[in-house]
Each structure stands twice: as C-alpha cells, then as structure tokens.
C-alpha cells in the first residue's frame, strides 16, 4: 500500500510538472507568434503611410501650364471647395499644402473635412492627410476620368490627371490620402480615407491595419528664422520637430519630413506577463519636453503584447 501511494504521488508530481511545462511552452509560442505578427503589422502600416507621404505634392510635367509653380508644387486650385487645407492656402502662400496633420483627431468621409484638432481619436491619436495630382491622359473631355494607375490613394484607387487641358484645376481633382485611428468592431484600427474621383460626394473610408492602438506624428519644418521676420529666406533645411498643432498655417508647405510612431497590440493572452509600463510611440528621448497628449501611453493590464514602432519619411516633393 505504501509503495502504491508513493507511486501515485510521483505520477501526480510528474503530471503537474508536465502540464506546467506545456503551459509555459505554449504561452511562449503564443508570444513569439504575436511578436512576429506585430512586426508584420507595423511593417505594412509604414509601407502604406510611407507611399502616401512620398506622393505628397506630386505634380507631373503635363500640369506645368495648369496649376504648377516653378518648383513643381501644387499652386492654388481654381475650385471653391471649402476644407481645412485652405487654412494654409489663405496664409499668404500661393501654393497650397501637400500635407496637413491634426493632433488627437479623427476623420470623416466628408470631402470637406480632413480632420480637426481634439476631435476625440482613440488614445489621442493624430491624423495625417496628404494630397497630390493624379496621372493619366493629359487632354481628354471633362466627362472622361482616365487614370494610368501610377498615382494611387492609400485605398489603392488610381487618381486621374486634372480634367481637360486649359481648364482651371479644381481643388477636388487632387488625390487625397488621409490616415487616422478608429475602433473597428472593438479593435483600434488604422483607417484610410481616400479621394480619387472629383465627381464623388464623399471620400472612401477603409480599415487597413488592425491592432494599431495609437498613432503619434511630428513634423520637421524648415522655419523662417528669425521668427520675428516674416520676410526672411528659408534655407531648405528643417530646423525643428513640432506637433501638428504647432505648425503655423504658413509653414505647412515647408514640412520636410514626417515622423510616425505607432503602438501596436496583439490578441488577448499574447503576453506572458501583463504590463502597465508606459510606452512612448515616438521614443522616450524624442518626447522629452514636448507637451502633447498621446506621447505617453499607459496600457491596461489585459494580457496583450504591445510594441512601439517609429519611422521617418521625407517629403520628396516639398518646396
């Protein structure tokens, strides 16, 4: 009897140890898989955002006589569409902004609303909008919208060149890619709002990357120094990083680079140990001394694996 009890006790101990080892191993595998998934998620998000930012301000040679200045930048459109890009256009520059950003901002599908500061985005996430000319037939009747597929919105929709040679360039003929964070079936998701058809009443909003919990954006601006002299000459070199709220209307045209920070989360149970340690989407050192909501993110203890990712994109079509 004693030997039987000893044998049963040993078997129970071995069983408990085996179950514990399996549980730890299984949890570790889930975390490794989740880690790889987070990397893939961030890589795809940066690919889509980077392509859009590099398109900002694009204008092909066909447009030189129809709304492009000597620098190849978009000039003031002839349309009367009212939207927040006009905050830049009415600031004294003849050239509208190829890029705009808003802190703690969400975006609607309205063609006249690209975002607004403090409009209640998840985790105070920022929004970013870029616009550009399309590419296609350079001389076609206004009833025809032809695009060669070269210039695409963040939704993958081709943007045609402006309508009809000699016609004024309407503002809503420009392609638009706007990025923002919104909840999609309870999951924070990177969304794209794209405009490619000037005849459409709204822009198309699509969820493109799930699990993006926070998006914070800063802008490298070539400032007019000294700031007290508005007539001074800019040297083409960015002087400082600032948030969207700190970019003056007259300075949006002179944004030279965009820095995007993301907090990406995995599925429930993807972390071996829940952590509420603060995360810094743009980096702890980069965020030091900057008073902007969202630069520090405190995650809930929900058992999800989280990581921060940062990437910087240059505007190759800037002035």
Instruction: Give the overall silhouette.
Output: elongated
Count of discrete structural domains: 1
Proportion of helical residues: 10-25%
β content, as a range? 15-25%
Through-space gap between termini: 90 Å
Please provide a written account of the structure:
The structure is a single chain. The chain has 319 residues and is of the alpha+beta class. The protein has one domain (23-314). It contains three helices and nine strands. Strands 1-2-3-4-5 form a five-stranded antiparallel sheet, covered by helices on one side. A hairpin with a 2-residue loop joins strand 3 and strand 4 (187-195). The chain starts with a helix and ends in a 5-residue tail after the last strand. The model is unreliable at 61-87 and 91-95 (pLDDT under 50).
List the helices and strands and how they pair.
Elements: H1 2-55, H2 86-89, E1 99-102, E2 127-132, E3 175-184, E4 187-195, E5 204-210, E6 212-221, E7 240-243, E8 255-265, H3 284-287, E9 306-314
Antiparallel strand pairs: 1-2, 2-3, 3-4, 4-5, 6-7, 6-8, 8-9
Write a brief structural summary.
It contains three helices and nine strands; from the N terminus they run H-H-E-E-E-E-E-E-E-E-H-E. It has helices spanning 2-55, 86-89, 284-287; strands at residues 99-102, 127-132, 175-184, 187-195, 204-210, 212-221, 240-243, 255-265, 306-314.
């Amino acid at each position: 009897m004693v030997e039987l009890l000893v044998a049963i006790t040993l078997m129970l101990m071995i069983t408990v140890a085996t179950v514990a080892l399996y549980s730890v191993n299984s949890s570790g595998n889930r975390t490794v898989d989740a880690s790889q998934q987070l990397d893939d998620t961030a890589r795809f998000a940066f690919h889509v955002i980077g392509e859009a930012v590099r398109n900002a301000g694009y204008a092909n040679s066909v447009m030189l006589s129809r709304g492009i200045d000597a620098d190849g930048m978009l000039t003031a459109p002839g349309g009367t569409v009212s939207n927040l890009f006009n905050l830049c256009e009415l600031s004294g520059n003849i050239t509208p902004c190829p890029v705009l950003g808003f802190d703690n901002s969400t975006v609607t599908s309205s063609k006249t609303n690209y975002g607004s500061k403090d409009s209640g985005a998840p985790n105070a996430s920022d929004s970013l909008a870029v616009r550009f000319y399309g590419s296609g037939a350079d001389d076609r009747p206004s009833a025809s919208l032809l695009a060669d597929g070269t210039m695409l919105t963040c939704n993958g929709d081709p943007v045609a060149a402006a309508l009809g040679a000699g016609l004024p360039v309407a503002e809503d003929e420009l392609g638009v890619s706007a990025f923002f964070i919104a909840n999609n079936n309870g999951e924070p998701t990177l969304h794209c709002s794209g405009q490619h058809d000037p005849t459409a009443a709204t822009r198309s909003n699509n969820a493109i990357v799930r699990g993006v919990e926070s998006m914070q954006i800063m802008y490298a601006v070539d400032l007019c120094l000294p700031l007290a002299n508005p007539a001074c000459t800019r040297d083409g070199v960015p002087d400082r990083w600032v948030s969207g709220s700190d970019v003056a209307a007259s300075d949006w045209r002179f944004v030279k680079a965009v820095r995007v920070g993301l907090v990406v989360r995995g599925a429930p149970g993807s972390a071996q140990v829940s952590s509420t340690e603060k995360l810094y989407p743009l980096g702890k050192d980069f965020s030091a001394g900057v008073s902007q909501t969202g630069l520090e993110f405190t995650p809930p203890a929900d058992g999800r694996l989280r990581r921060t990712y940062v990437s910087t994109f240059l505007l190759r079509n800037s002035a």
